[in-house]
Design goal:
With about 290 residues, the chain is α/β, with parallel strands linked by helices. About 40% of the residues lie in helices and about 15% in strands. The strands form 3 sheets. It has a 5-stranded parallel sheet. Helix 1 runs parallel beside helix 2, helix 9 packs antiparallel against helix 12 and helix 10 packs across helix 11. The protein is globular, with a radius of gyration of 21 Å. Belongs to the CbbQ/NirQ/NorQ/GpvN family. This is MoxR-like ATPase.
Length: about 290
């Protein structure tokens, strides 16, 4: 599905002007695409921001497709996407790389293995930082200079000053309010263009299911679209957590439903992931009302 076919000509021209056409050893890191944006404006704004070299912060609930959206931008611009998955254990080496012992001409040497940040900067590719607010606050300042007008970093392991090659962009994702996350420093957040990513619904979700799962039964697809709508409403009412409305989990259930009964598929892909018995009952009751 061509998600750019309805975009204005000047926006599609931007993609062509900034699409990566050089040779690279990292073709395998180019995303496959597949994200269907909830609005034309969202896709237009992202394309403009990327073309202007802006840093992008994707903000939305878990399972809303932020990673898939980053991969789709990678596909649109034919740009390899280096990734950092943040956690409380994330350290500077996770960004810049590490030193290791190697052998050269029979002698032991200390070799440096560049990390995803260094690789993306030197090659002019994209860097995706997932769940950036999971990282320890003391780790993130290493990228401050990368995110502002300087577009450079002094590698703490080698003392090399690295200036980003043209084409380098940072795309980060954030889930606010989750256990283990911290509030993103305002100075850091101000270095990003913030894009809200919400759950897909209606026809957009229907197209996503058709294009990204094995399910082709029209009736079942419509029932899953309704289930997603009901789960989102339940999260807004405080009956279940956002995990229950994850589009990722819904797509898993759709795939399973090609071979097993839908209610069982929903139990495996959605219900059993929830730790609260009350939430499990809410989801199962919604499924029972929709599916035979």
């Amino acid at each position: 599905m061509d998600i750019t076919k309805d975009l204005p000509q000047n926006i599609t021209n931007l993609i062509e002007q900034h699409k990566y056409t050089g040779e690279t050893d990292f073709d395998y890191l180019v995303g496959e695409g597949g994200y269907i944006p909830q609005s034309e404006d969202l896709l237009t704004d992202l394309i403009v921001a990327i073309a202007q070299g802006k840093n992008i912060l994707l903000k939305g609930p878990t399972g809303s497709g932020k990673t898939k959206l980053a991969e789709t931008l990678s596909s649109l611009f034919n740009q390899p996407l280096f990734s950092v998955n943040c956690s409380v254990d994330l350290d500077v080496e996770s960004f810049v790389g590490f030193k290791t012992i190697d052998y050269q001409d029979g002698k032991q040497i200390i070799d440096y293995v560049p990390g995803p940040l260094v690789q993306a900067m030197k090659n002019g590719h994209f860097l995706y930082i997932d769940e950036i607010n999971m990282a320890k606050p003391e780790t993130l300042p290493v990228i401050n200079g990368v995110l502002d007008y300087r577009r450079q970093i002094t590698n703490p392991l080698t003392n090399e000053v690295i200036k980003a090659k043209e084409g380098f962009n940072v795309i980060a994702a954030i889930n606010e309010g989750y256990i283990g996350t911290t509030r993103l420093n305002e100075a850091l957040k101000n270095r990003f263009i913030v894009i809200d990513v919400s759950y897909l619904q209606g026809e957009q979700l229907k197209n996503l299911i058709k294009n990204n799962t094995n399910l082709n039964d029209e009736k079942l697809i419509n029932q899953y679209v309704q289930l997603s709508h009901d789960l989102i409403a339940a999260t807004q009412q405080g009956k279940v957590s956002e995990d229950a409305a994850s589009i990722r989990a819904l797509l898993d259930a759709c795939d399973l439903s090609e071979m097993i009964p839908p209610k069982r598929a929903i139990r495996r892909a959605i219900v059993n992931k929830l730790e609260d018995d009350r939430e499990q009952d809410v989801v199962q009751n919604l499924a029972d009302m929709l599916f035979e």
